[in-house]
Amino acid sequence: MTTISYAYHLADAENWPSIQRDGLLSTDALIRCAGLSEQNAAPYRRYRDTSMQLPSGVWIRDQRPMPPEALARCLDPDLDADGWYALVNSKVFFWLSTTRLDRHRAACANRPQVTIVIDLPALLSRHGSRACVTPFNVGNARRRAASRGHRTFVPVESWRTSRWAAEAPRGAPARSPSHPPAELTVDGAVPDFMDFVVDVRTPSVARRA
């Protein structure tokens, strides 16, 4: 992480005003902000085969690349599909390379997107204790999906000292220390998100924040 200066977040363009107002919130946090009861919130927390709009007007993304039947083939024994969705819904996500960002943007081309560039060292200096890195795109469970579980989210401080040792399945060798992180996650929310924004690229115009 010491050589990575920027992280990237791709947001639905309709969500940009709420991000500027409230910060970057996980799906769980967005559901709570929408004031939904547990029963009414359930459809948003389970597998989403299409993007869904909360009563607050905020959109949450579909999970089509990780349907339950695909997850069943790659999840650790202590975690089922619902548990995985709960884990993913509890975090906000950033890409750590423009290549992965561009792939995601192409996959979301059916709706206007905003690309937000973040000062990564500044973000970690304030929220590093809640930050993890992943070795692959955890939002995709198709095409020879890597095995995964709670261990897939490696705390940044642990990664700095021992790289992927904590991520290896029991009895299996760890990934090469040179294997780069794919994603950065922060638990819950980044309410002061705008403090770290260095560039915003909207569908029609790019501007310096």
Describe the structure.
The two termini are about 25 Å apart. The protein has helices spanning about 15-20, 25-35, 40-45, 70, 80-90, 100-105, 120-125, 155-160, and strands at about 5-10, 25, 50-55, 60, 90-95, 115-120, 130-135, 155, 185, 190, 195-200, 205-209. The radius of gyration is 17 Å and the shape is globular. The protein is built from 8 helices and 12 strands. It has a 4-stranded antiparallel sheet. It has a 4-stranded antiparallel sheet with strand order 5-9-7-8. Strands 2-10 form a two-stranded antiparallel sheet. Helices cover about 30% and strands about 20% of the residues. It is an alpha+beta fold and about 210 residues long. The chain has one domain (about 5-209).
Number of domains: 1
Order of helices and strands: EHEHHEEHHEHEHEEHEEEE
Proportion of strand residues: 15-25%
Span between N and C termini? 23 Å
Portion of residues within helices: 25-40%
Q: Helix/strand/pairing class, anyone?
A: alpha+beta
Mean pLDDT figure: 94
The total count of strands amounts to: 12
Q: Give the radius of gyration.
A: 17 Å
Order of strands side by side in the largest beta sheet? 1-6-11-12
Give the biggest beta sheet.
Answer: 4 strands, antiparallel
Global shape: globular
Q: Low-confidence spans: pLDDT under 50, at least 5 residues?
A: 205-209
Q: Please count the helical segments.
A: 8
Oligomer: single chain
